[in-house]
């Protein structure tokens, strides 16, 4: 049994949203403009090694350890991806530093390369959003060095937002992909108690005691609503009717867009797919309120997923009346 929780506070902003940079989609197509920005004395550069950003942890909150143009000039051979312009017009780039062993020397006591998932809750909302952009782009470039049509090497163009085949007989252009994922709550009204109930599940790799919303990739030729109904039924055997959208979240592991929804369940019987879930349960609104407040306590059981996740945030928004 769970004791009643205090009133749930208003939902906080969603991690990885709120990017403050202007991506300058039109100017970045100009190679000369991009070269000028990379060499501008006020431009800023974020080193990534093994997809881990350089972070200054000496302040609270922690902040990204941007390097200046003089440092970047010494590493001009490194792949640079344009992230955008700040409100002062200063260009910001991310550098893939894996091929430069000396960039490891930046790692020290107070400035460290740290995994994005770990550091995102500790930096400002805007910088976490920049990390989502930077990590996804660098990861995509590392995975797409050759043309999918002819197998020839590709080169980055448009500031890193495209790669073009270097084969003059092909010249195929490739763009960073974003994979849509539905993540959803199935909800119903308990006819015996009159309580609102929410379906949550556990995957085998989850930490003990943690439950989360069901989720799955959208398939070709499928609407968001169809994907929500299909995934809930495939994983938990629960049929659903009306689906409503709540919120979205970039998820840079490696490049998903999470689409948060709530679906109206038309039955309460659960029949899990053991290849997808080890358990699924209905929880009451009061239980959910307690589980939300326990989310950051690794010893608590049952509890919701960490506040960094969209599962946590759409559940909090549902509790608040969304």
Automatic annotation (TrEMBL):
InterPro entries: NAD-cap_RNA_hydrolase_NudC, NADH_PPase-like_N, NudC-like_C, NUDIX_hydrolase-like_dom_sf, NUDIX_hydrolase_CS, NUDIX_hydrolase_dom, Znr_NADH_PPase. Residues 1-28 are annotated as: Disordered. Residues 176-306 form the Nudix hydrolase domain. It is an enzyme of class 3 (hydrolase). GO terms for molecular function: hydrolase activity. Keywords: Hydrolase, Magnesium, Metal-binding, NAD. CDD domains: NUDIX_NADH_pyrophosphatase_Nudt13. Its EC number is 3.6.1.22. Residues 1-12 have a biased composition (Pro residues). It catalyses: a 5'-end NAD(+)-phospho-ribonucleoside in mRNA + H2O = a 5'-end phospho-adenosine-phospho-ribonucleoside in mRNA + beta-nicotinamide D-ribonucleotide + 2 H(+). Its cofactor is Mg(2+); Zn(2+). Pfam families: NUDIX (PF00293), NUDIX-like (PF09296), Zn_ribbon_NUD (PF09297). It comes from the Bacteria. Belongs to the Nudix hydrolase family. NudC subfamily. NCBIfam families: PRK00241.1. This is NAD(+) diphosphatase.
């Amino acid at each position: 049994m769970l004791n009643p929780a205090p009133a749930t506070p208003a939902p906080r902003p969603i991690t990885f949203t709120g990017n403050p940079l202007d991506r300058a989609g039109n100017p970045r197509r100009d190679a000369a403009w991009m070269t000028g920005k990379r060499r501008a004395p006020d431009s800023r550069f974020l080193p990534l090694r093994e997809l881990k950003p350089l972070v200054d942890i000496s302040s609270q909150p922690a902040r990204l350890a941007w390097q200046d143009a003089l440092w970047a000039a010494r590493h001009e051979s490194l792949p640079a991806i344009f992230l955008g312009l700040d409100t002062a017009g200063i260009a910001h780039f991310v550098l893939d530093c894996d091929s430069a062993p000396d960039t490891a020397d930046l790692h020290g006591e107070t400035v460290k390369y740290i995994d994005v998932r770990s550091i995102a809750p500790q930096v400002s909302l805007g910088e976490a959003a920049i990390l989502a952009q930077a990590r996804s782009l660098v990861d995509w470039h590392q995975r797409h060095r050759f043309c999918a049509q002819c197998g020839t090497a590709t080169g980055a163009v448009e500031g890193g937002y495209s790669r073009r085949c270097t084969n003059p007989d092909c010249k195929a252009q490739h763009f960073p992909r974003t994979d849509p994922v539905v993540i959803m709550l199935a909800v119903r009204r308990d006819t015996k108690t009159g309580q609102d109930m929410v379906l949550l599940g556990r995957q085998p790799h989850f930490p003990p005691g943690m439950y989360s919303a069901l989720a799955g990739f959208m398939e070709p030729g499928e609407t968001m609503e169809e994907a929500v109904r299909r995934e809930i039924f495939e994983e938990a055997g629960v049929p659903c009717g009306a689906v409503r959208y709540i919120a979205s979240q970039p998820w840079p592991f490696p490049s998903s867009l999470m689409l948060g929804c709530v679906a109206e369940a038309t039955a309460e019987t659960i029949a899990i797919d053991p290849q997808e879930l080890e358990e699924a349960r209905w929880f009451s609104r009061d239980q959910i309120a307690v589980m939300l407040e326990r989310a950051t306590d690794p010893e608590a059981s049952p509890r919701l997923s960490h506040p960094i996740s969209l599962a946590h945030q759409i559940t909090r928004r549902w509790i608040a009346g969304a």
